[in-house]
Every structure is written in C-alpha cells, then in structure tokens.
Amino acid sequence: MKTKISFVGLGKLGLPLATNLAKKKFLVEAIDLNQKTIKTLQRGKAPWVETDLQANILLAEDNITYTTKYDNAHKSDVSIILVNTPTNKKDGSFSNIYVEQSLISLCNNFVENGKKSHHFILSSTVMPRSIKDTFIPLIESITGWTLNKEFGFSYVPDFVAIGKIIHDFENPDFLLIGSSNPHYADEAEKIYLRIIK
Length: 197
What we know:
The chain is α/β, with parallel strands linked by helices. The chain has helices spanning about 15-25, 35-40, 55-60, 95-110, 130-145, 165-170, 180-195; strands at about 5-10, 25-30, 65, 80, 120, 150-155, 180. Helices cover about 40% and strands about 15% of the residues. The protein has a seven-stranded mixed beta sheet with strand order 3-2-1-4-5-6-7, with helices on both faces. Helix 1 (about 15-25) crosses helix 3 (about 55-60) and helix 4 (about 95-110) packs parallel to helix 5 (about 130-145). It is globular.
C-alpha cells in the first residue's frame, strides 16, 4: 500500500518537494490556497521557472492531485507542511501564522471525519520552541489527542538553494530530523530516504 501524504504549501520549496515525493510513488494531495497556482498545476504546467520543475511535474502526475481544499486530508497517513514563514522586519523573527492556519485546517478536517491518529511533519523555518510551545498545544486543543499517543510531530528542515532546489532535495549534504519519539523519526526518515539519491 502506498503512503498517502497531505502536503501543505506549494511555494518555491514546497512544490519541488511535493513533486519529488510523488514521482517516488507516494500518493500526494498537494494543497495551496493560491488558486492561480493550483489552476496552473492542474494543467500540468510549472507556475514559475526552476531547474527540472516542469519535468518533475510530469513525472509526478500519476501520483499527485492539486487542490485549494483540505477535504481529503483525513485520508492521508502523514502531513508535510512547508508554508511561508514571513520575517518580522523589526526583530527578524519568523511568523507562525501560516503554519498555524495549516494545522487548524488539517485538525478540523481530522475531527470532522473521525480520524484517530496522524503524523505531522514540519519543514518550514520557525523560531525555537514554536513546536513545543505553540504547534503541539494547538493540535491537542483541536483534536483532543495526546502527543506520542494519537499523534506524532517531526521537524525536517530544508537545506536547498534557489535554482537547484530539486537537485538539493535529492542530494542533500545531510538529512536532519527532529521528532517527538523514535517511531516517528523512523517514519520520517523512510519517507525522505526514498527521494534522496
């Protein structure tokens, strides 16, 4: 059985990673609120220029769907979140607003559909303690779940450069995974090792 991934955030980094996963036979529900981007992708076209992105989109097409809705998120085994975290110009900190909105939408879908467990993987750049102090309590408050019982949380940051994002995801200098327990760390590792050459 193929692992089903709900992937949130199809920006400059998210779309290359989502298509990398889909071309490696993961079933990916790719979610982004930008309707123009989604319509372009539904036509099989890259919404911007990035090395190998158009080829990736074509290689991924049998295993990926593009949508602005979270309707089928409950059918996924894992969610990967790679949304923008804008920088505060005053102090240089990163905003969690889009990560929080993504988690709220995912969790509301899970509750509405009676989902019993899930693994959340965050790839966006966030400030220290955001996961422990903000994201995990947010998930718990909406779902009623307990960390490492009904859900796990992993953090897998990206080390990529514009112009060679797909290459860098497939050929990273290293893979860094932080996780709420070894079981979820192993699960995240198995996913990412599939795309690393």
